[in-house]
Design goal:
There is one protein chain. The chain is α+β, with helices and mostly antiparallel strands. Helix content is about 50%, strand content about 15%. The protein has 10 helices and 8 strands. It has helices at about 5-35, 40-45, 65-80, 80-100, 105-115, 235-270, 280-310, 315-340, 350-365, 370-380, and strands at about 140-145, 145-155, 165-170, 180-185, 195-200, 210-220, 270, 275. Strands 1-2-6-5 form a 4-stranded antiparallel β-sheet, with helices on one face. The protein has a two-stranded antiparallel sheet with strand order 3-4. The longest helix is centred in the middle third of the chain and has 37 residues, at about 235-270. Bound molecules: flavin-adenine dinucleotide (FAD). Flavin-adenine dinucleotide binds near residues 121, 124, 363 and 369.
Length: about 375
């Protein structure tokens, strides 16, 4: 068992850390506070090739392993989790197109997505269905060489920048079980009837936009049906979400690490009752607990990523990593606020942002309740095990 990153992964981590320290940290508080879209950071990430993380090399991407992907998301999230969101659903959908797309679809989209010239996201959630994806109401009716799509999607990250936007639809609403009639369409945002109708106001996760959109009889060529075969959509999306959960777990590790770092630094500076507060045992116990849980979350995340890299199904592992790391991030954010006393409640200190960003990781790519049911199903069916 080797707990070390490879030389290449260490180099990537150091490069990312230097980039985040130089380009993201100095602007994060001000830009996040104002809700400004970080175009300049996106331009730099494009130059670094980060939009091609999960795009195969033959289409111009990096074809990174999942441990490297985790390292990238962790480092960015130490500086500003919202920026990681710009890469998150983009990378997930790049993987999905590369894995399931027809050769024509790959050639049409992946080279431009790899450079970030075009970007993407994923539209699953609807006002009436989030966890219960088989309950979606968006339909795609076949009409000659097109599908005519009607419905409404909500909470869609990167919606204003996605081209194409993969949209989960029902191509056969009467199918039983419902997933047999579900498909993914790669929707051109310039198509008539496609409209991003509003940006949702959010607690945190500022930077990327998260929007509601309407599809009003949007004509989508049948050539844009992901993989060319209807009825495969839910399976394609669930496989992509497995990768997405590793990215969410890694973001949570980044937030937890930053919370710990901020708490440690503050405890070493702040004085009370004539001594540094780091000298109080109550503070020391908090720091120790944060460090233990943070490192456990990191190892669980790298383990899940390694299993995915081995080409094995990793829904159990990625679910465990996502659930645990997100709950550690939440706990570390609250604990770090406590270590800061009243200043933890101030917008002038970083921990306040971590406290607003951490809960998203509990919700995104499957709520932790849903993932606990996924984990339990794998365990009770004998498909997965621990020990
Ligand atoms: C900032 C942000 C960005 C997002 N970005 C995207 C995006 O880019 N694309 C996208 O498609 N979606 C996105 N989402 C949506 C997100 O994936 C959903 O919010 C999430 O899947 C939960 O769905 P829901 O909100 O409809 O909650 P619901 O499914 O209504 O769940 C409500 C509560 O009930 C619980 N629950 C539901 N069913 C069960 C069950 N069977 N067993 C136990 N508990 C259950 C849930 O755990 C939760 O606590 C985003 C959400 C946020 C907040």
């Amino acid at each position: 068992m080797d707990f070390e990153l490879s030389d290449e992964q260490r180099l990537l981590r150091d490069t990312m850390r230097a980039f985040v320290n130089a380009e993201i940290r100095p602007v994060a508080r001000e830009w996040e506070e104002s809700g400004r879209y970080p175009e300049e950071i996106v331009a730099l990430m494009r130059r670094m090739g980060l939009f091609g993380l999960l795009v195969p090399e033959e289409y111009g991407g990096m074809a990174a392993d999942m441990v490297s992907l985790a390292v990238v998301f962790e480092e960015i999230s130490r500086g500003w989790m919202g920026v990681a969101g710009i890469l998150g659903s983009h990378s997930l959908s790049c993987w999905m197109i590369a894995r399931y797309g027809t050769e024509d679809q790959k050639l049409a989209h992946l080279p431009a997505l790899a450079t970030g010239e075009r970007r993407t996201g994923i539209a699953l959630t609807e006002p009436g269905a989030g966890s219960d994806l088989q309950g979606i109401a968006t339909t795609a009716r076949r009409d000659g060489d097109s599908y005519v799509v009607s419905g409404r999607k909500t909470w869609i990250t990167n919606a204003r920048h996605a081209d194409p936007l993969p949209v989960l639809v029902k191509t056969d609403p009467a199918a039983r079980p419902p997933h047999a009639g579900m498909s993914v369409l790669l929707v051109d945002p310039a198509a008539a009837g496609f409209e991003v109708v509003r940006d949702l106001p959010k607690l945190g996760y500022r930077g990327p936009e998260t929007c509601e959109l309407v599809l009003d009889d949007v004509r989508v060529p049948t050539a844009s049906l992901l993989g060319g075969m209807p009825g495969r959509g839910l399976q394609q999306v669930l496989a992509a979400l497995e990768k997405g959960r590793i990215n969410i777990a890694a973001r949570a590790v980044g937030v937890a690490q930053e919370a710990y770092d901020q708490a440690l630094r503050y405890a070493g500076e702040r004085e009370a009752f004539g001594q540094k507060i780091s000298g109080f045992q109550a503070i020391q116990l908090k720091l120790a607990d944060m460090a233990i849980k943070l490192q456990a979350a990191r190892l669980l995340t790298y383990w899940a990523a390694s299993r995915a890299d081995a080409g094995e199904r990793a829904d159990l592992e990625s679910g465990m990593a996502k659930v645990y790391a997100s709950e550690v991030a939440l706990e570390c954010a609250v604990t770090a606020m406590g270590v800061h006393g009243g200043y933890g409640y101030s917008k002038e200190f970083t921990v306040e942002r971590l406290y607003r960003d951490a809960p998203l990781m509990v919700i995104g790519e499957g709520t932790n309740d849903i993932l606990r049911t996924v984990i339990a199903r794998a365990l009770t069916s004998g498909r997965g095990s621990v020990g």
